[in-house]
Design brief:
It is a single chain. The chain has helices spanning about 1-20, 20-25, 135-140, 140-150, and strands spanning about 35-40, 40-45, 50, 55, 60-65, 75, 90-95, 100-110, 115-125. It has about 150 residues and is of the alpha/beta class. The protein has a domain at about 25-130: Cupredoxins -  blue copper proteins (Immunoglobulin-like). A hairpin with a 5-residue loop joins β8 (about 100-110) and β9 (about 115-125). It is globular, with a radius of gyration of 20 Å.
Length: about 150
């Protein structure tokens, strides 16, 4: 029975690896350079993923977006605050960042606003700063904070 289960798992893994959509999955699911986090004032787009699912950048800086893939890509904010337009292979665009916060981004050609495919987040500045926090988070009383800070209780 055990060799049968191992065989089924190997067949399943092979199908996932060979499935055309699996190799084109965006975000950090593509493996390699597209996993994890990236930082700095340069964001690189690869074919069907951003280099790093989450990209950290300082507030009040200009982000240089570079298409290092063979296919055209874009970097578009879900909230509509910026859009590079379509960048062909080797194309570059600059985005001035003026506000602190977390911005969901996607490629209009290979991703969705809902976070499918080529999508990620851009963390501008310190997202824990009071200006970036939702109003509800800043109005918590000290007692509510103390309870939340002690999950073992």
């Amino acid at each position: 029975m055990r060799p049968f289960r191992i065989g089924i798992m190997l067949i399943g893994a092979s199908l996932v690896a060979l499935w055309p959509g699996a190799a084109l999955a965006g975000g950090g699911r593509g493996g390699g350079a597209c996993d994890g986090f990236s930082s700095g004032d340069r964001l690189v787009m690869r074919d069907s993923c951003f280099e790093g699912v989450a990209h950290f950048v300082d507030a009040s800086s200009t982000l240089l977006v570079v298409n290092a893939g063979a296919a055209p890509h874009s970097l578009t904010a879900v909230d509509g605050s910026f859009d590079t337009g379509t960048l062909s292979s080797g194309g570059k665009a600059e985005i001035p960042l003026k506000t602190t916060g977390i911005v969901r981004v996607y490629c209009t050609l290979h991703g969705t606003k809902a976070g499918g495919g080529m999508a990620g987040v851009l963390i501008v500045g310190d997202p824990t700063a009071s200006a970036a926090r939702p109003a509800a988070a800043t109005t918590l009383g000290s007692r509510a904070w103390w309870s939340a800070a002690r999950p073992w209780r």
